Amino acid sequence: MHWQQAEADEKGIMETGEAIVGSIERETWAGKKDTWVMTSKYPWRDSEGAIVGTFGVSSDISDLMVAQADLRKLAGTYEKKNREMAEELELAREVQQALLPDDFPEVSGGGVSLQFYRRYEPARVLTGEFFEVVPLGPGKVGFLMGEVFDKGVRSALIVSMLRGLIEKEMGSAGDAGAFLTGLNVGLSHLLVDSRHEVRATAFYGVVDLGEATIQLSVAGHVNPIAVFDDGVRQLVPPEHASGPALGMAESTTYGTVTAPVKGLRRMICFTQGLKEARNQDGVEFGVTRMLEEIERGGDMEKVMERLSGTVREFCGGEVFRNAICLLGWEVTK
Length: 333
Hints:
Elements: H1 2-16, E1 20-29, E2 32-45, E3 51-60, H2 62-99, E4 107-109, E5 112-121, E6 129-135, E7 140-148, H3 152-168, H4 176-190, E8 200-208, E9 213-219, E10 225-228, E11 231-234, E12 242-243, E13 257-260, E14 264-270, H5 272-275, H6 286-295, H7 300-315, E15 324-332
Parallel strand pairs: 9-12
Antiparallel strand pairs: 1-2, 2-3, 4-5, 5-15, 6-7, 7-8, 8-9, 9-13, 10-11, 10-14, 14-15
């Protein structure tokens, strides 16, 4: 009974002199909904300070308690949905990682071979890095490095679209510029009704060992680093072989530059996120540090492992939000 608790409270106050402040009580009524009140009770003293009774004030907080109960229920629902979404995103991240190629074709011609390597350290969230190695016949191979500048599910969807377009454009994959032009047209068509701006960069090259040539074409992507007999440097294709990111303008035509492969020993393609990694002072890792690390040489896999480790070390306590994505190849006898 409510009166019994009230009586006990008042006796306790009179015995101890200690007030009860902000006590929440549930009141039950016959034939009516329960109500909630917040009550504060204090000792009532006479002029000499002796306790002669109690007094208090109560406020009806029934609406607040109902709202809190509704919020707890809603929070539980959202917590469950967030947990389910996190599990789905993790699955999507694992699938995205699994779709990246592990095995590369054997390419030989002109008395030499081309060996491909990859290093991919996924981010904690879905990101848009992708790469492909495309067999084009005896002694000829294409290699693609790209990046969708978005996060989460949208980036994963765009990458999936591009993978489908790559398969569709295989007929033009022997011409670097024509291949990127085809990808751009296809992606532009897919995004025509999208209100969300998408920027997908790509670098595509074709090595023909029989002809001892390499073709290059760039769609807004960061240029790779090449190791020549006479040193290490970042490649800078001419203007006619460089264009904007894919999907920005359907009418864009990408050109091709062709150069002799003689003297070219290694090439490492990477994504913008790697170059732009910053330390605690906001300093960018940059291409110069990448050149210095690659110039140290050594086994190709070790070079890529060392490069990724150096980037993470450079970032220090800062969270590295992007995936580390490297695609490299070297010419062997």
